[in-house]
């Protein structure tokens, strides 16, 4: 049987190890849950777009790093909604924040530049 002293030591060690976990590298916000909801119900694109915008805004307002692909995902939703000029803004942010995305973002910017505005 474990004594109270052993249980206390084990709990203290567990708390110490848990406290050593590094902070999250990126500010994902509610991205994962909103993406899952969007995949289940694609008709809720407006809600998904709002969650993306909120996640980006929250990260930027707290000076945390926006995760790779989040600007591009939001830009793509804007592009699919017919808002090419605003999509370009987010594609450029993705390219600036994540230089390795330059080739893809330049392509997306070209596509968004040729998009007719939504009516």
Structural commentary:
The protein is mostly helical. It has a single domain, classed as Serine Threonine Protein Phosphatase 5, Tetratricopeptide repeat (Alpha Horseshoe), CATH 1.25.40. The chain has six helices and no strands. The chain has helices at residues 4-19, 31-40, 45-61, 70-80, 84-97, 102-113. Helix 3 packs antiparallel against helix 4. It is elongated, with a radius of gyration of 21 Å. The N and C termini lie far apart (73 Å).
Task: Calculate Rg over CA atoms.
Answer: 21 Å
Estimate nothing, just give the exact number of structural domains: 1
Query: Which residues sit in consecutive blocks of at least 5 with pLDDT less than 50?
Result: none
Number of helices: 6
Distance between the termini: 73 Å
Topology:
Layout: H1 4-19, H2 31-40, H3 45-61, H4 70-80, H5 84-97, H6 102-113
Summarize this structure briefly.
This protein has 119 residues and is an all-alpha fold. The chain contains six helices and no strands.
